[in-house]
Input
Amino acid sequence: MKDIIDFISQPWPWYVAGPIIALTMSLLLFLGNSFGISANLRTICSVVGAGKNCEFFDFNWRAQLWNLVFATGMMIGGFIAHYYLSPHVEVNLSSETLQELSQMGIEGPSGSLVPLSIFSWDSLLTIRGFVIMVIGGFLIGFGTRYAGGCTSGHAISGLSDLQLSSLIAVIGFFLGGLFMTYFIFPYLLKL
Amino acid sequence: MKLVKVIRYLFIGAIFGITLAKAEIISWYRIYEMFKFQSFHMYGVIGSAVVIGAIIIQIIKRLKLKTIDGHPIYISPKDLSVPRYLIGGTIFGLGWAMTGACPGPMFILLGNGVGVILVVLLSAILGTYVYGLLRKRLPH
Output
């Protein structure tokens, strides 16, 4: 048993994760649902009563309860992975990435999946931390609902269904992502 | 919601969460690396998911497979329009690169021990709320 746990405690390769994601999407289809995680953001707004003064949130959110449970399951999965399946975190980044990040003052990923110099409560009180976490989060919430989906809804479900609208959305994802990474990060990360 | 259904979705969600955590898809570093095209990893994940997903959906459509309740599996086609997908997508992309997380990873990171991601999640909910308020004035 210990050998099995040690084995799956190593980082998983793309050819394991990709198929599992496809299977998850398919399983949800067979259960009569669709794979789209950003819908939960809208549901949460509706559950807390946003539907009272905004039509967009005035819908039967109970029909989306399964998705909130699914998201809760994801949290549990993250917990299990962290506390039982990750004795030490060592992200095997490319050396160019490591070098670039170091030049911008961002520490490498040994021991953490995210840079703790950015993602910490203390960092929230700095301009860089506030911009990345609050404005970044806001852009995600605004953008995903505007586009009607995020990576799960468009990049995975939409592209698998060969939908042109999802391809346009994914092109948008990359336009935004590349712009941020190449033009804004060099300044933002050094703040 | 029936307990059996709750356990079912918790289980599927947990497997999904473990997968994304172990494959480092929830890592800000991996997303930066992806946008810099400095590794195949994330492209392999999304690419293989789409290839297999497309094959499965084709099988579902051709064999007219049904859900476990016996209903037809129907994926509603989205209206083809460029503004909402391109503009909305770009706005999301900016946030995705900035935070290194999309909605799924946000929930998973919360469980993974990055408590401050709650701030990102709450900001995202606020962003969705503001979208809801402004949407009639935005090009779709």
